Amino acid sequence: MTAALTDIPLTTIDGDTTTLGAYTGKTLLVVNVASKCGLTPQYAGLETLYREKRDAGLEILGFPANDFAGQEPGNDAEIQQFCTLHYDVDFPLFSKIAVTGPDAHPLYAALTAARPEATGDGPMRERLRDHGMTPNPAPGVLWNFEKFLIDRHGHVVDRFAPDVTADDPRLRAAVEAALAG
């Protein structure tokens, strides 16, 4: 992994301190998640993908964020309970962070700098406008459930718009390629 990504301090949802260095040699799908979003059912698809590919070296890392319309109001314990009870989430979850704006966590600042454009960007941005919302401008994270793919060597190799689901052929192909690399 690149030193910048590897060394950024992270806090797990259980309060332990770690870094992405703990996942060296793994393919990572980093996702900002929220429990009260129209996209929240994506937890199910992410968990399915995780169970299918974790033995091949995939780790899905969920970062709860309350940046978009207050859709993640809970504390870490409430978020963990929600994810366990409603979606049987087994992939690692982290403490709630900001993913955009001046308070964005350093991890998300590094991810958006490394990959300023998202695959599949457009339809979700238009839906937000249709609902009278002003979409966050690129390179900022657009909404909940945006996904960053990091290969085994620590390179941010792709980024997917929030409405690109875990079963989308584009995401699946990118994950397969990253796992093979």
Overall geometric form: globular
- What name does CATH use for the topology? Glutaredoxin
- The tally of beta strands, per DSSP, is 6
Estimate nothing, just give the exact number of structural domains. 1
Q: How big is the Rg?
A: 15 Å
Which structural class fits the helix and strand makeup? Answer: alpha+beta
| Unreliable parts | none
**What kind of sheet is the major sheet?**
4 strands, mixed
**CATH class assignment:** Alpha Beta
**First-last Cα distance:** 14 Å
User: Main sheet: which strands, in order across?
Assistant: 4-3-5-6
Question: In words, what does this structure look like?
Answer:
There is one protein chain. This protein has a single domain, classed as Glutaredoxin. By secondary structure, it is α+β, with helices and mostly antiparallel strands. It starts with a helix and ends with a helix. It is built from 6 helices and 6 strands, in the order αβββαβαααββα. The radius of gyration is 15 Å and the shape is globular.
Output the keywords.
181 residues; Glutaredoxin; 6 strands; two-stranded antiparallel sheet; 15% strand; alpha+beta
How do you describe this structure in short?
The chain is α+β, with helices and mostly antiparallel strands. Helix content is 32%, strand content 15%.
